[in-house]
Amino acid sequence: MTAIAALKPRTKDMHVSALEADLMMEALNACHQIAPLWPLKSFVAVNPMLGQADEAFETAVESLANNLNARLLLDRQDYADALGKGAFDERHLAEAIELAGAQEALSVNEVTTALTGAAGEDTLEVQTLADHAEVATGEDWPRFAVEQISFWASGYFDEGQSAWKSPWRDQAPFAAWRKQASFDRTPEIMGLKGFRGVIASLPEDAIEAMRRIVADLGLPAEARPAYFARLLSTLAGWAGYRRYQGWRGELKGEGPSGVIDILAIRAAFDYAIHESLKPKLSVQSWRDVLLRDHAPAADVQPRIIAQCARELAYQERLIEGIASNLPSARPDRPAAQAVFCIDVRSERIRRALESINGDIETFGFAGFFGVPIALSRVVDTHDQCPVLLEPTHTVREAPRDQTAWSAQTFAGAWKRFKTGAVSSFAFVESWGAAFAGALLRDLMGRPAPEENPLGAIDSSAGSCGGQKTGIPLDDRIALAKGALAGISLTDGFARLVALVGHGSTTTNNPYAAGLDCGACGGHTGEANARVAAEILNDAAVRKALKESGLPIPDDTIFIAALHDTTTDEIKIFDESRIPDSHAQDLAHLKRDFIDASRLSRRDRAASLGLEEGPGLDRKVLAKSRDWAEVRPEWGLAGCAAFIAAPRALTKGLDLQGRTFLHSYDWKADQENSILELIMTAPLVVASWISLQYYGSSIDNARFGSGDKALHNVVGGLGVLEGCGGDLRSGLPLQSVHTGARLFHDPLRLTALIAAPTERIDAVLEKHANVRALFANGWLHLIAMDDDGRSFKRLTRDGRWMDIPSHAARELQPAA
Amino acid sequence: MMISIVGFAGLCAPLVYLTAAFAFRKQHFFRVGLFLAAGAFAAAVLCDILLALAKGTEAGSPVFLDAFSAAILTLITFVGFVVVRYSITYLDGDPDQPRFMSWLCLTLAAVSALVIAGDLRLFALAWIATSLALHKLLVFRSERPRAIIAARKKFIVARIGDAALLGAVYMMMNAFGTAEIAAILEGAQNMKATGGAPGLLALAPVFLVIAAVLKSGQFPTHGWLGEVMETPTPVSALLHAGIINAGGFLIIRFADVMLLNGSAMHALALIGGFTALFGSIVMLTQTSIKVSLAYSTVAQMGFMLLQCGLGVFSAATLHIIAHSLYKAHAFLSSGRAVTLSRISRPAMTQKKRDAVFAVLSALALYLAIGVPFGGRAGEEPAILALGAIYIIGLSMYLSALLADTNSRALGLGLAGFATAFYFLLQNAFATLLAGAIPAPLAPDAVGNAVIVIALGSFAVVAFAQVFHLPATDKVRAFYVHAAQGFYANAIFNRLIGALRVGRDVYVSRSAS
Contact at 8 Å (CB) between A392 and A375? Predict the structure, then answer.
C-alpha cells in the first residue's frame, strides 16, 4: 500500500534533473546485468551471469527466477537421479549443508526427501506491460514486441547480410528505432491502434524518452530496477551485442551506457502497447504485481545443497587423484618442451604426448603466449588476445601482391551478382546448375576452404598507412620476459621448445570461432604462437634476456605449432626457419606429435560416438569436414577445474579433459605478481567459460542459443533460432547435450592453486572483484601444498579450512 | 496395363522412398534407408538412360515419363539423396530423428509420385499428399508457435490450391473423357491445331494458374515460406529445391492445356513477373540468411512462372533445375553465412559512362557468345526479353567490378564464361525437351504488352540499385515497407490470429 502512495507523480518541473539522474543510474544498473555478446566471427565465452557476479549465488538463483524466469539449478529430479547413481552421496550432502551453515535449518534427510518429492510451482515473473496485455487480451504481445524490435535491430546492426541497409545506421539506436517505428505499419495491422503516433510523440533522446514513459505510467521508484531488468532480459541478445560494441570503453572504465538505448526501445514498446490497448488494461494492477514480494520456491535450498554436493564429490575425486599421484622428477634436460594453452582440451593432448615420450616436458599457459596483438589481414583487422585486454601492437600479414585485394573486390562483385534484385535471376540462369558440383563436393566431405591460410607475418616495427605496426625491441624483450616467467620456464631449456597454440577445423559451422582459442579472441592461436616464437628466437631479445639474468642456451630454438582440437593433429609452422642442426630433434618431435595425436583421438573416440579401430583417424578427420556435423568436437564441455601448479603434481593423472592447467611455481614467483596475474586474468577467463557452459547446460532457453538445426545466421554476427525472436547468446544445445542427455556436467569451477594460503590471501585482498567471485559462491577455491598432499578450502567468509584426504592419510605412513 | 522398363524404373522411385520411410523408423536401419534413397536416384538415372536410348517416352498410365519428367525426377531424387544423407548426421542424437526421417521420405515419395504420374487422379493425390507430408515436417518442432503459424498459413493456402487443382482435373477429365495425362495433352494439341472450341475446358488453365501460384509462394500468399526455418534446415533445402517448384512443374506438364487460354498465360506472366520483382526487392533488405534465401526463392519462382507465362517452357524447366541445385546448396551450407558476410559488397559505379560501358559489355558478350550458339539468342520476342533481362543482370555485375581496374579483365572473363554456360544450357534444354513440351510461341498484342511491362520494370529496379536513391523520407519509408514485405504477411497473420497461437503455453507459465 505504501508503494501505491508513492505512485503520486512528483511534480515534474521541480524534480526533473534529480529524477533523470536516478533514472540514469537505474537504467545503467539494469544494463550492467546484461552480459556482453561477441559476434560469431570472434565468438568468445562470456559469463552469462556477469551482471549477478556481485550477488551471492543463492540470491541470484532467486532473483533470476523471479525477474527473468531463468534457472541456475537443475531440476530436483536430476539431482535425485545423480544421487541414485552414486555421483555423490550423503556425506557430500552433509558437507554441503555444513559449508552453507545450514545445519540447523536442514538435515540430509530433509534434502533427500525434498529432492524426491513433488515438483514445486514455478515462481512468478516480474511482468512487463506486454505480459500484462497478453493476460488481458489473450494475444502474445511479449513475443510480438521482441520480434518487432529484433527485426529493427538486425537491420540496424547488420554486418554484411543485407544489400539494402537501414537508412538510420548513423543515428543512436533509440533515435533510429523511433524513426523506423514511426513508419512501420505492422503493429497497427496486428491491432495496436495509433502505435506509430505514440512512438513519434516520444523525444528522440533515450533517457528523455524513458523519463516521459516512467512519468506517464506512474512507475514507482522501487519498482523500476526489477522492471528495467525484466525489460532488458527480453532482448538480452541484442542488448548484449550493444554492450559488446562499447566493451573497449568499459575496459577503460566507462559504463555500459550504450545499452540504455535498447532498454529505452523496449520500454517505449511497452508504453505504446499500453497506450494502444488502454481501455483493456489496468495499469494499477500491473503496478501491484510489480511491487508484490516474491516468495522463493520451496525446493530452492535443497537443490542448492545438492548442486554443491555434486561439486564436492568431483573435488573429492580430483583431490584423491592428486594426493595419490606420485610426483615425477623434472628431467635434467628434456628431449623437448611444449607449451600448450590452458584450455581443457590441452590436457588430453599433453597427457598423450607425455605418455608417448616421458622425456618431453609440457607446460600450460594462456594460448596467446603473452603477446596481445591485433592481426591485420586483407579481410579485416582483429584482436588476437583475451577480451579482458586491449591489444598493444598490430602485426601485419606480410603484404601480398595486389591480387589479394582484387580478389576481394572480385568476390564482392560476385556477391552483388548473386544477391542483387534482377541480377540474381541472371545468376541462377547462368550459374545455378554449377551448384550440382558444390553439392557433390560437400556431400563427399571435400568442402571449399572458408578462410585463406595465414601467410608470412611481419612483427618487426614499422608503419602502415600512418599507423605504427610491429613490435619494437624494448617491447619484444618485455613480452619475452613476461611470457617465460608466466610459463614458469626460466631454466632447463630443451633444444626445442614448441609453443603450441590451438584452433579447430570445422565447416559450415556458425560457432566455429567458439571452438577456437578464447585467449586469442576467438581465433586460432597460430598468429600468437608464431610471433611469440619469433620474438623468443630474436638474437637481440636473447642478448637482453641474458643480461637481465635469464640466459637461454644458444642451442634452444622456439618453434610455433598449432593443435587442431577437432582432429587432434599438431601442425608446425615456419619450418624453413629451423636450422639444420635441429633437424633430428624436429623429426623426433614430429613423430611424437603424430603418435600423441593418434592416442588423443582414441581417448576421445567414445565421447564422439566413434568406435576404436583402424578407421578411427579417418572418421575423426571426416567430422571436421562434414557440413552436416553439428558436434564436430565437444569444445570445452566438461570443464570443471582450474589447476595452477607445477605439472609434476598432475603428470600421469587422467584428468579427462576437464581441467584448465596453468603451470605455476610459487617459489619462482618472488613478488607474487605471477599469482596475481593468474588469479585476475586466466582464472577469471576460465570462470567465464565454465559459467557459460553452466548456464547453457542448465537453462539453454535463457543462457544458451538453442537448437543448431534451427539456427539462422543474422547480420553475419549472431544467430536467431528460427525466423525471429531475440538474438541468441551462449552455446547451442548440441554443444552441451548429446540429444539423450547433458554431455556437459554443470559444475561451478573449482580453482586449485599450489601456493601458500597467505599468498593467495594477498591477491584476494588486493582484488575485490576476484574475492567476490569466491565469496559469492560462483566458484570454489582450494589451496594445496607443494607435494599435493594437503588441501585447504577457502570458505565463503574467507577462512581456510582443512580438507581431509583419504589418500593422503593412507600414504602418510609409507612416506 | 502394360508397363515398360522405363515406366517400371520410374515407378521404383516413390516405392523405394516408401520403403525407406519404413526403414528409417528404426535407428539401426538408417543405413538401409540411405541405401534406398540412393536407389531412388539410381532409378531416376536409369530412366534417363533408357529414355535416351529408346528416344521415346513412357506415355501411359499410371506412369508418364518423358524427357521433362525424367529430368525433374533426376533432380528431385538427387536433392533427396543429399538431404537424406545430410539429415542423418545433422539430427543425430535427436530422439525424434526417426520420425523426421520417415516424414522426409514420405514427402519424397509423394513428390516423386507426382512427377511420374501418368494418371490425373494419381497426380492430384500425389499433389495433396506432398503438401500433407510436408506439413508434418513443418510442425516437427511442434512446441514453437512460429512453426505452427507458418504451417497453418501454408495449410490454408495449400487447401485452396488443392481445390483449384481438383477443379482443373475435373474439367480436363470431363473434356477429354480420360484420366490419362498423355492422352489429354494430345487432345489439347489437336484442339489447338484444329482450332476447336475448348468450351468449359478454357477454364482449366485458369484453375491450373491458381493452383500453381498458390503452390509456389507467389505474392501475396508467400508469407509462410519466410517462416519455415522454424523447422530443421534440411526441410528448407527440400522444400525450396524439390517442392516449391511443383507449381512450375504443373504448368509445364500441362503446357498444352495452358496454351488453350492466352489470358491465363498472360495472368501467370504478370503474377510471376510482379512476384519476381517483389521478392527480389524484399530480399535486398533481409538480414538473416534463411529469410533472405526464402525471399530469393519467392522471386525465382516468380521469374520461372513469368517464363512459363511467356511460353518459354524449356527455359522455365532449366530455371527450376538450376535454382533447385543452387538453393539446396545455399540452405544446407547456410552456416557459412558468417564467413560470407565478411565479404563486403563493392560500391556500384556512380559514373554514367561506366554504367553505359557495363551495359554495352554485357550486350556485346551476349551477342558474341549467343550468335555462334545459333538462333536461340533472339528469334522469338519472349526469348529476346529473357535475354534482355540476362543482360541487365550481367551489367549489374559488371558495374560492381568497374571500381577496381585490376578486376576488370578477370571479371569480363568470368562474365563471358557464365554467358557461355547460359547459352549452352539454354540450347541443351531446348533440344532435350523439344518433344516433351511445346515450343515457344509467338505472343499476341497483349503478350507483347506484358513483355514490355516486365522488361521496363526490371530495368527500373536494376537502375535503382546501381544509382543511389535520394535520401528522402519517402525512400526511407519505402525501405521499412519493403523490409516488412509490404505487410502481406502481417495481414495474413492478423487474419489467422497468429498472436493467439501457442500462447496457452506462455500464459500458464506467467500466471502460475
Answer: no
Residue B257 within a domain:
yes
Residue B58 lies in a domain: yes
Note whether B329 and B272 are same-domain residues.
yes
Q: Give chain A positions within 8 Å (CB) of B332.
A: 439, 442, 508, 627-628
* Contact between chains at A160 and B343 (C-beta distance less than 8 A): yes
Please report the pLDDT score of residue A613 as a whole number: 86
- State the pairing for strand pair A718-721/A711-714: antiparallel
Residue type, B20: A
CB contact under 8 A, B229 and A406: no
Q: Is the pLDDT of residue A811 over 80?
A: no
Q: Are B167 and B180 in a shared domain? A: yes
Helix (H, G, I), strand (E, B) or coil at A90: helix
Contact B481 A412 (CB under 8 A): no
B186 and B249 part of one domain: yes
Q: For A20-41, what is each residue's pLDDT tens digit?
A: 678 889 999 999 999 999 999 9
Query: Does B281 fall in a domain?
Result: yes
Long-range contacts of A657-661 (CB under 8 A, 24+ apart): A657/A344, A657/A345, A657/A347, A657/A348, A657/A603, A657/A604, A658/A344, A658/A347, A659/A318, A659/A344, A659/A347, A660/A342, A660/A343, A660/A344, A660/A364, A660/A686, A661/A342, A661/A346, A661/A347, A661/A350, A661/A364
Give the Cα separation of A780 and A308 in Å (integer): 10
Pair (B203, B297) in one structural domain: yes
Residues of chain B with Cβ-Cβ distance to A712 below 8 Å are 229, 288-291, 334
Please tell me if residue A381 touches chain B, with a CB cutoff of 8 Å.
no
Domain count, chain B: 3
Cα–Cα distance, A77 to A114 (Å, whole number)? 10
Chain A residues within an 8 Å CB radius of B419: 430
Residues of B in contact with A436 (CB under 8 A): 78, 325
The DSSP code for A235 is: T
Provide mean pLDDT across the span B44-49.
93
Grid cell in block for residue B136: 508434418
B447 in any annotated domain? yes
Cβ within 8 Å, pair A715-B341 = yes
Q: Closest residue of A to B85, CA-based?
A: A443
Picking from B50, B83, B118, the residue at the C-terminal end of a domain is B118
Question: B459 or A261, which is more confident?
Answer: A261
Closest Cβ–Cβ partner in B323, B392, B510 for A422 = B392
Q: What ipTM describes this predicted complex?
A: 0.94
C-alpha cell at B446: 497483349
pLDDT at A295: 64
Does A406 contact chain B (CB < 8 Å)?
yes
User: Do residues B22 and B111 share a domain?
Assistant: yes
Name the percent of chain A in helix, strand, coil, to the closest 5.
50, 10, 35
Give the pairing type, strands A360-365 and A336-341.
parallel
Q: A139 in contact with B at a CB cutoff of 8 Å?
A: yes
Chain A, chain B: beta-carbon pairs less than 8 Å apart: 379
pLDDT of residue A421: 86
A140-163 per-position pLDDT tens digit: 999 999 999 999 999 999 998 888
Which residue from A680, A674, A663, A669 is spatially nearest to A389, judged by alpha carbons? A680
Q: Is A508 on the interface with B (CB under 8 A)?
A: yes
Arithmetic mean of pLDDT, B196-209 = 87
- Note down the domain range covering B407: 349-467
Question: Which of the listed residues B103, B118, B133 is the one where a domain comes to its end?
Answer: B118
Residue to substitute from B244, B341, B421, interface A, most A β-carbons within 10 A = B341
Check CB contact under 8 Å for B389 and A425. Answer: yes
Residue A51 corresponds to which cell in the numbers above?
551482471
Q: Are residues B460 and B474 in the same domain?
A: no
**B200 and B226 both lie in a single domain:** yes
Strands A373-376 and A393-397, by their bridges, are: parallel
Q: Is the peptide bond before B62 cis (omega within 30 degrees of 0)?
A: yes
